[in-house]
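For practice. Supply one:
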Amino acid sequence: MSDHDSIPGVEQLLAERYGAKSGPAYRAIDNAITRHILNHRSVRAFDEARALPPDALSTLVAAAQSASSSSNLQVWSVVAVQDPEHKARLSVAERNRRFVRQAPLFLVWLADYARAKLLAERRGVAIDGADYVESLVLASVDTALAAQNAALAAQSLGLGVVYVGGLRSHVRAIAADLKLPPGVFPVVGMAVGYPAQTLSTHIRPRLPQAAVLHHEHYDSSQQGQEAQRQAAETYDHALDAFWKKQGIDHPLWTRHIADRLTIDPQDERWQLGDILRELGFPLRDHPPADPKALAPQPASAERER
């Protein structure tokens, strides 16, 4: 929000984030940044009459580029989509949701090794390391960090955002539509714009900290598993109360995760290994037997000279 005075205090934000009556009271250091982060909520309806403020896009990209980057490789890119017809085509990725078409800006965040390979090739070097699973994980993490920085920056400007993971259900079509070269993969989309004035958004509760916070080591003991079950039960009650307050009939969270992780053979998300290979990610997970093969090799004898 641009008007920071309208953001509640940290105590109220924590109560909403965890469900006021669902468990222990939490404490957090109170400052403008923590309040801003705790105040996050997804926006799925945008004011189509309001354009983005001047320099908004460059501000979001600058914020994204200010995120941490592993070894400063910066192996991500973003495609900004503002053309209404183009947004309409991409909205299919989110089951034709209206908010993708409404938002004045739709960002597609990409794990991108095409740039690194191009630059290495111009130096006469082939970078086989980009072909490994580790490199895709690295690029996906960097892409997510960049996207989240942009989301926080957008919200600080009074804009709303919602992530669109449905892109990964239509990877082939998205890659073709965006003319992605080999070595580039769409990780997630993000709709950005001013929230619709008629929209009332609320902070959705999250799991109790006991479910996600471990000390010194991961606690998979019987006690730890029981604590997980209790935390999930507490969360079921908190989230159920949240949905009922919104007038929404929604299954319990523990049922939701089971349903959500059931495989749909027609969904491209469950075919990503094959699709990633099509997009230029070999996904190797074992180095060559010959250690010499790990060394960067000249891309061609001509370049070596």
Observations:
- The two ends are 57 Å apart (CA to CA).
